Amino acid sequence: MINVPNVTIALVAVSRDCFVKDLSIKRRKAVVIKSKEKKLPVVEIQQIIENEGDVARALVEIQNSKANALVVYLGNFGPEGPETLLAQKFDGPVMFVAAAEESGGSLFDGRGDAYCGMLNASYNIGLRNLIPYIPEYPVGEDYEIADKIENFLTIARIYIGVKNLKIISFGPRPHDFLACNAPIKPLYDLGVEIMENSELDLFEAYNNHKDDSRIPAIIEEMEKELGEGNKMPGILPKLAQYELTLQDWLDKNRGMSDYVVFANKCWPAFQTQFGFVPCYVNSRFASRGIPIACETDIYGALSEYILTLATMTPATLLDINNTVPYDMYDKYIKGVSDYKSTDVFMGFHCGNTPACCMKKPELKYQRIMKRLLEPDGEPNISRGTLEGTIMASDITLFRLQSTAEATLKSYIAEGEVLDVDPKSFGSIGVIAISEMKRFYRHVLIEKRYPHHAGLGFMHKGHVIFEALKMLGVSDISFNQPASMMYKTENPF
After folding, report:
1. Is residue 278 part of a domain?
2. Which H or E run includes 85?
3. N or C: which end of the chain has fewer CB within 10 A?
4. Number of domains present in the structure of the chain
């Protein structure tokens, strides 16, 4: 994957001056050994934090190590002022963890009291208005701390990626899809840059790439990827020209941002002017870690990117689209799984899902657009979708969205794509989410979410939840179990 951060974690141990410093050093070294066994990118910072002067020295050592994430490790009780000052001065994601006692035979001279120290650290974290990651149980022995560092690695990658992201958009949102509204102030609050452009800018850039000498090489790549699914080879030159247009725009307009995604308008005038639909190109960018959200869905692009950072695999953007007919449910799902008919639905989009996520993907045409624009002839300007059944997989359904009042909110639901033929067109799959009926009513409808949802192909709800908290998002919904009522759910 490209377009994602490489995370290196600095491990800094702390020690309160009335405790034995060597205890923190010994415990830090043990954590490093366990982390290296897990092949985690951990740098052992030699400076122990006992006072404010140590903070300055540690920051220099961290900077020289090129680490971009920090673990503050309470090897013993720890000095809450200096250790939280270190977190405040460090420019990046921070995790606080503490050492557990190892043996009943070492509780005189070898007791660290870090369990107690975490309490005081939490108070000082609040005084400094910090939002570090603190695991659900932040105390553990060396191997348990290494496990927590492994978890933090993904959280840190999400945090760093979002904080250094630019979203490039083309065109205003279609009038028919104002639900994908995108107040941009919350993007700046997150640290995300936004560059909005006209469709005319994109069209000019596309025309300037006519007869580009690199087009044949891109066509060859596409032919290799599509294989027998290359059902409409005649449209490949235009798609290759468009792909180069977007890549060059990205390269020239990255600016000070490290990572870039797109949110592009793709209808209704796109087909008539460009002469194709851009779905397959969107899928190719997503497969490399550069999501291109449909219909200028800026927060959809951000959601896809967060899923990419969480899974380190391609993500997609789908409509929460249609119910599964009862006859299909009875034949293919009932008795095979425990899902109720109201737990399943179909996720669909025109053809933007990466080829690696679908069974037998094929280059086809946008059926809905063809009905409107060229109903009586062979498909021409509606060509360019990548269609197929989305492969069975664990999934995380996720969206980060701004309200019309410019307040961030989010939902996360883990589920799976079932191995069921959707018997329809587009990039499509039958998706199962436990208690989807209630989630649909009391989260998606109640909180006015749009129809687009990001889909990542792993269960990553835990790390996304923690990363959102670090990013300052407090409204995070999930699919609550039957035993847990929603605030607005009718108890009768």
Report:
1. yes
2. helix 80-89
3. C
4. 2
